[in-house]
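@channel sequence for tomorrow's demo:
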Amino acid sequence: MASITLGGNPIHTNGTLPQKGSKATDFTLVKTDLSTTSLADFSGKKVVLNIFPSIDTGTCAQSVRTFNEKASQLENTVVLCISRDLPFAQKRFCGAEGLENVINLSDFKSGQFGKDYGLEMIDGPLSDLHSRVVIVLDENGTVLHAEQVGEIADEPNYEAALAVL
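structure tokens (generated this afternoon):
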């Protein structure tokens, strides 16, 4: 269980993030067109998992914008932006912002991704949503970097995540 904060108030997650060097657990998430995709679909590519509570908050929106900008410069790399938002909200946001270099995926059906990756918030006002996390995987799905952002309102360390690519 990780201890994080929201506005300085303690919140806990259901577990711990995958460790550097471990193999990432496969998942099935919903795309903005309501089809499903899995981690296996990105085999052979480096993968950045940009995970956050909701696209409709300022910090979460900024992380999607920032990774969208950086992703256009990355070779053989895909950025997956994952939340429990409905796919319609994710599609609306990216369409309004003109973001085309990231893939939004939703864990709205069961939240199983958040549970499996140890990042589901289990108490506080955002309980059952995902905490702010960045995980970077190599082409074989091995974890190169994992950051649990300590304060939900803070942005992740983009440079540290991108440096391992």
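heads up for whoever presents: The CA atoms of residues 49 and 80 lie 5 Å apart.
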